[in-house]
Amino acid sequence: MKTLKFLTLIAIVSFGLYSFTSIVQTEWKVPAKYVSMKNPTSPKVDANIGKTLYATHCKSCHGTKGLGDGTKAKDLNGDLGDMSSAAFQKQTDGEIFYKMTFGRDDMPNFDKKLKNDEDRWLIVNYVRTLKK
Prior knowledge:
The chain is built from seven helices and no strands. By secondary structure, it is an all-alpha fold. It has a single domain, classed as Cytochrome Bc1 Complex, Chain D, domain 2. It has helices spanning about 1-25, 30-35, 45-55, 60, 85-90, 95-100, 115-130. Helices cover about 50% and strands about 0% of the residues.
């Protein structure tokens, strides 16, 4: 009985700490490996494929111009970001690739939906065209 109470207490404390850190943590930490990762695709090649992939997989949340105003945006929690902003655009290609691949909170991971890394890199190239 003592063990059950102890495990219950640990579970409650763990859940509380997890809930607190998910509320407090606003910065999306990207591992250094991805921050320095170079995009292997040329922005001049297959640009239309990146645009089409964005329209298929990203536009419903992020909007046509990447402003975070897609048709599904109002149903999501958190800030979807403004892909045209200087703050978004100053991220490395690797950071954007990481966030798209692994997701977080309402941002789904696309490593299974877009199994080919090249497709995700082509989307990175396309979102670069959204800058103001």
